[in-house]
Amino acid sequence: MTGAFSRLEFDPLLDDPDTRVLVCCGSGGVGKTTTAAALALRAAERGRRVVVLTIDPARRLAQSLGLRELDNHPREVVVEGFEPKGELFAMMLDMRRTFDDMVLTHAGRDRADQILSNPFYQTISSSFSGTQEYMAMEKLGQLVAQDEWDLIVVDTPPSRSALDFLDAPQRLSTVLDGKFIRMLSAPARASGRGLMKIVGTGFSLFTRAVSTIVGGQLLQDASTFVQAFDSMFGGFRERAQRTYELLRSPGTGFVVVAAAEPDALREASYFVERLSAEGMPLCGLVANRTHPVLAGDLPAAKALAAADDLDRSGEAPLAAAVLRLHADRVAVADREKRLLARFTRAHPGVPLVGVPALPADVHDLDGLREIGRRLAGE
Amino acid sequence: MTSWTEELTRARLHVVSGKGGTGKTTVAAALALALATGGRRVLLVEVEGRQGIAQLFDRPPLPYSEERIAAAPGGGEVHALAVDAEAALLEYLAMFYNLGFAGRTLRKMGAIEFATTLAPGLRDVLLTGKVKECVNRTGPDGRHLYDAVVLDAPPTGRVVKFLDVTKAMADLAKVGPIKGQSEGVVRLLHSGDTAVHLVALLEEMPVRETLDAVAELDAADLRPGAVLVNRVQPERLPARSIPVAAEGRVDGSRVRDGLASAGLDLDEFTLEGLVDETVEHAIRVRSQQEAMELLRESDLPTIDLPELTDGVDVAALYELAEVLVAAGVR
Predict the structure, then answer these.
(1) Which domains are seen in chain A, by residue range?
(2) I want to staple A295 with a disulfide (CB 3.0 to 4.6 A). Which of A103, A232, B255, B273 is the partner?
(3) Cβ under 8 Å to A: B residues 162-201
(4) Which residue from A212, A214, A298 is facing B270, i.e. has the nearest CB?
(5) Cα B36 to Cα B42, B188, B226, distances in angstroms
């Protein structure tokens, strides 16, 4: 690798009792969930009592952790032959149930029923774009409050941008707490404050247009929902704020996961800058699924020239193939190194570790353990 | 393996979907270039607010207007449009309610965000409505302005919901201008003018998701087009060596002798490295073959696009477009 970079050392981090929360983030498809699971497994085998919160694990990965259903509670990972020095728990996030539980906790029984049966609530709790992120944070807050684990490893939702994890909760409360929705719920009060005057006739025309498009019933439901929800808002925001503070506390660390691809590294850059702007603790970057050259002493050009020789003579087709696949690998590795060096130049202080790709999918604890070894640089 | 069919040649709207991370946008752009090859005019549309097209063509973010972004071989041209739901809603309101003037205020109040994020289906109706308008638009000579429109659509998990405007419409508009507009969209999307292509990688999960998407499209009476297999790695080993090598059995001494006959005298360590690389290559090729086998179940035309070791830049898009043209895309 060109340029200086510090190596991200996971073992000291996992062993440190002051490390309480690790958040694995990055853009979609980079292997966040697998990384989170592998780190949790390694920490448990090194003696910690760990819970890993996964968001949307691939079926095989879920099975490897013994997770068969989404029941929204941590379960101890029980797999034959698995006897870690510490303990490992795993869970999958059920976003709808987390939201429902939150409503039940915060609103009285009657009001909770009213909210849960509102169609507008059902839309928000199942399909609003920020709900999954919000609920992941909420669940993290709950796990911390339960105080049963000494390390919590969190996976983040598969959004296209890593920043969504930090921004989405804010967006949700902006919508729920926005001026527009307030006006819908209490047009009279809003007009009293003069908001109607600002917008003038445009507003009433707009509500009319919107109700033509989305249906008057939806506006009605929204209004009922906001009124019922009103008393909860305080607790809601406060909670989000507390979780946000937790993310900034010294026991928390962010692990940014990226593939050695331009898009994923661009997202990782944004995220790293954002974390530093927010004063959130960054552990470092995991460059996932790299393809380092295993026969480093043989230059690609030399390998290709030799392969051409062999092809001409028609001898040794196996050796010729080996040389060509080696040259392919050198090209891929060079490109990955170039991209990572560019990241390092832009963010010289960020520790980094490359995790060589496994040739096949992970489908059991052995596979996760192997990734853990690679994460730790073994 | 079949490639581009006569039926696909007649399609005017090419929807491109695929599991996240499969290179959907890249393939959509290459497909637009391929369709434009030989002098046609093609519009490439994105709907997810990612500005993926601009990044791919190394340009500043696209405004909400159709811009020419590339020339295709043989005098063709590709234009691009990033459709934004908020802008589409404002355009729509301006068109039907003469409300354009209040747009900025409404946006500041969060009204536009409210309407487009919370009303189920409204966003999709607006986006597909804009796409339909582009497909049907005619020039002064009365002919279609674009010979083809390529839509970089949402990923497979959401694409059927996105395209199934019938359902969204039933939820929303029972009367009013949006009803007429949606009916036109439904007609277009379910007609032979539209094909939904799926981008896949030769790995188990993406292939399974592709097969699920084909079933979903069929169930919704939408037409699956071709499967565009991205990042296919070259198979370097002789076919008969692959299964053995994937099991970890590579005859090191045979490799060493072969290398020696080409004048390469390598140390033990390098030789071991080469053998390990060979085993990994064989495992990848084997799982690639298994994925290909699984993909055959879909019984759709399939086109392989090679892995580009130097990464994707504008030149690489032309390279992929050439592969598509060679496979019969027109």
Answers:
(1) 10-172+232-296+348-376 (3.40.50.300)
(2) B273
(3) 171-176, 178
(4) A298
(5) 6, 21, 18
